[in-house]
Amino acid sequence: xxxxxxxxxxxxxxxxxxxxxxxxxxxxxxxxxxxxxxxxxxxxxxxxxxxxxxxxxxxxxxxxxxxxxxxxxxxxxxxxxxxxxxxxxxxxxxxxxxxxxxxxxxxxxxxxxxxxxxxxxxxxxxxxxxxxxxxxxxxxxxxxxxxxxxxxxxxxxxxxxxxxxxxxxxxxxxxxxxxxxxxxxxxxxxxxxxxxxxxxxxxxxxxxxxxxxxxxxxxxxxxxxxxxxxxxxxxxxxxxxxxxxxxxxxxxxxxxxxxxxxxxxxxxxxxxxxxxxxxxxxxxxxxxxxxxxxxxxxxxxxxxxxxxxxxxxxxxxxxxxxxxxxxxxxxxxxxxxxxxxxxxxxxxxxxxxxxxxxxxxxxxxxxxxxxxxxxxxxxxxxxxxxxxxxxxxxxxxxxxxxxxxxxxxxxxxxxxxxxxxxxxxxxxxxxxxxxxxxxxxxxxxxxxxxxxxxxxxxxxxxxxxxxxxxxxxxxxxxxxxxxxx
Length: 485
Known about the structure:
This protein folds into 2 domains: 3-182 and 299-446, Aminopeptidase; 184-296, Alpha-Beta Plaits (2-Layer Sandwich), CATH 3.30.70. The protein is of the alpha/beta class. The model has no long low-confidence stretch (mean pLDDT 96). 38% of the residues lie in helices and 16% in strands. Helix 1 packs antiparallel against helix 13, helix 4 packs parallel to helix 13 (424-446) and helix 6 crosses helix 7. A 7-stranded mixed sheet has the order 1-2-4-3-5-11-6. Strands 8-9-7-10 form a 4-stranded antiparallel sheet. The protein is built from 14 helices and 11 strands. It has helices at residues 3-12, 14-27, 35-47, 109-128, 150-156, 209-223, 263-284, 303-316, 323-334, 352-361, 389-393, 415-420, 424-446, 448-461; strands at 51-53, 63-69, 73-78, 135-141, 165-172, 176-177, 184-193, 232-239, 251-260, 287-296, 398-404.
């Protein structure tokens, strides 16, 4: 078995993969609204010989494309939602909106999905040359990562339990296999319904929904002293009830985000926030409705899979860049309003040896492109953010990595990322990711002991059980929409 044969096949299919990435970049559809993106993937995958299921877990823009039969069953995860307000001309080193106020792929999910597509195509080629029953690959289209947490809804419905393991990646500004964990997160929107009245003439007849929001917020401020140190609570008022101060506001809404390391702890803290909301409604004489928006669990690192990803990353190598590409990347770095002097990657913070390597390789974080692979370090360190990949990792062994698709130090969710995501730099990064995923999956198909070891590690780390943050009756929705009484 020569993995390079199937990675070479990915190279042969690269124009198709780039076309998909660029079309998704152009569509720039927001979370749970990725209809054209989903249709494009389903069309291409069917033409490539996959069996496609759509929708998945009741989510219209989710799909599962499978090929092969028997075990092991390996999942490859892809995303394709964009962000609002980030419309940007491709390849431009200055702010240049295509559509004023339009959307853009500031997190690179157009490349994320396309790189995973490349991997699925390469793995399919491998399985097509093996006897029936040698294994199955499933490419999952996972919408709504930026708001919707589709993977968590899919976890609630048992989608990930069918897998022997799952692999994914994410565009970044460096090449590394990621480790460690993150926060669990739950988003809930609270709507209060009051009674309008003249704020001066008949204030006693009014019941202020905005008062209820403010009372709730005050109650949560007092809660902060009595919650675990690692927990976090954030909020945004999504409806302040109007712009007339002489009218008692009859409606108001507030969106809350509750974080803690473990989902079970986030759920317990969420219950306390719910109680405060009910108290605020009682105090102000208003009615309360709440709407679950989304929730996701912390990630469970898997050293066996991470080491295998790193081995394949070493074998595949990192992208190389032309002078023109480096000049463009340098122009992008010069456009940053704030320059981050931090070294690239994560592992250097925990390893003096890796720190010394990264300092030298990045020329003390001055290179416009991080054209090197950061050494792997297993970690259980917690990062403050959240991702719905966590819910996958609680139901099957999972691992992920980054490839350099953006200029060094590029701010997250930025127009610079949008600009770079539809260029040859982005193309090289996503193709590299596809090859790494493909090689890793082939190793797992070829050596069942690797999957056994990954499962043993997974079983030990998840023995406390999975606490799904998504209620049984919840459906994927977006925040900010008016809640009707």
